Amino acid sequence: MDTLIVVKDLKKNYGDLEAVKGITLSIPRGKIFGFLGPNGAGKTTSLKIFVGLLRATSGEVYIDGLLASKNKKKLNYMLGLIPQDLVFWDDLTVEENLQFVGEMYNVPKEKRREIINSLLKEISLEDKRKTLAKNLSGGLKRRLNIIMGLVHDPEIIVADEPTPGLDPHSRALVWDFLRDLTRVKKKTVILTTHFMEEADRLSDQIAIMDHGELLVVDTPENLRNSIGEGDLIELQFNEDIFVEKAAIILEEVKDGIGILDICPFGMMLQIRCLNAPSRLTEILNILTNIEGLEVVDMKIRKATLEDVFLHLTGRALRE
Length: 319
Hints:
This protein is of the alpha/beta class. It has 2 domains: 3-224, P-loop containing nucleotide triphosphate hydrolases (Rossmann fold, 3-Layer(aba) Sandwich); 228-302, Alpha-Beta Plaits. The chain has 11 helices and 14 strands. Strands 6-7-8-3-9-10 form a 6-stranded mixed sheet. Strands 2-1-4-5 form a 4-stranded antiparallel sheet, covered by helices on one side.
């Protein structure tokens, strides 16, 4: 696999705080690379170093063989940013916003027109080109925001939370747009998102960070399989006091009934189990010994990327 970005032992300190603790990774060319982590994990700091907005305390980033810290001007034209915050000029039309960005990057007039027309068509904004940005709906503003960083035709696109607030139809359109950037235009996309389904569906590879450290880099399929064999049984009880009691009882008998893992979560008990459908009745019969316990909801499902994420980073809330 052709590597485009190489990160070597990257560190970033803010005084005594180690925000990034020596991460090393490679990002392949022409793929979508998911970069995930809880709030405060260090991923935003890392991305800012990748795109030249922050200077690393130590370590290096190479982009297409170029040392990023020594080639900022050239790399500015290789990088495009889709920011989480909306960044455009309210009193300019959609087309004027894009024209202005193209002029800032010195994109020739004919090429600029061609790129803008293509982007408007691909993101379904053609009929809004003469509309003032401030008069767009929330979803249309988000779509304009996505293409603002692409007018200079960058080779690498950093998409930072590109779909918050979008309805399912608009989100699907943006997903298709991002896929086409890699599959059709052969761009490289670095995606950050808190939507695990989005990361799972779009990413060719995923890196998960926490507490400034790189925990894992792998394909979504391999990550889903990393939790282990078996399906997940989720049991929701009538009161949270029964979750711990149920976990204790099942822990005592788990080896005999094929239970691999037991994880309490709020008013729910998550059980990873071999041959889960055939074991469910046996598990429920065991739990009937707990006086007052009622199972108000239950489901059996495969492990998801969100399960992997929570398994690696924990379930505690982050600020």
